[in-house]
Amino acid sequence: MIKTLKFFVKEAGLRIKYMTSRDCIFCKLINDGGWASEPILETDSIVAVSDINPVADVHILIIPKNHIESVLTIGEKDSRDIIEMFSVAQKIVEEKKLEAFRLAFNAGRFQHVPHLHMHLLAGGKVQWSKL
Ligand code: AMP
Ligand code: ZN
Predict the structure, then answer these.
(1) pTM value?
(2) 12, 51, 73, 93: least CB-packed within 10 angstroms?
(3) Would you say the CB of residue 70 lies under 6 angstroms from ligand 1?
(4) Are the beta carbons of 39 and 47 closer than 8 angstroms?
(5) What are the angstrom distances between the C-alpha of 113 and each of 58, 100, 125?
(6) Could you tell me the fold of the domain covering 23-130?
(7) SS3 state of residue 110
């Protein structure tokens, strides 16, 4: 079954545009709001939020607004989103003056939310086994 559909936002008569998946928790939060805390940074195509179950002092999720399932499904069409994810990571690192940090992607059985997201981890000990 094709799960994705074009999501239209009516804003001043304009339609936009995220590829979304009906059963996806991150798509729902991206489209309807309701994150546990205010996003840390948001651009047209990316949202960065604090992880609700942090495994490090700083644990931020950097999420494309378009539904991309995982690192295994990234394609040419996603190139702008992927670059923007790293650009957002750079901004957060700069703003928070993080001297050392790690970026991680889970996949396969390690990935619990099937919507691509980058974990930005910093400070103290990272509890890798819980990631
Ligand atoms: P992964 O195992 O890589 O798919 O990671 C999913 C991450 O999303 C976990 O670290 C969860 O704690 C986090 N998470 C799940 N739901 C939310 C939410 N509503 N807001 C923030 N983080 C979430
Ligand atoms: Zn999604």
Answers:
(1) 0.90
(2) 12
(3) no
(4) yes
(5) 19, 26, 23
(6) HIT family, subunit A (3.30.428)
(7) helix
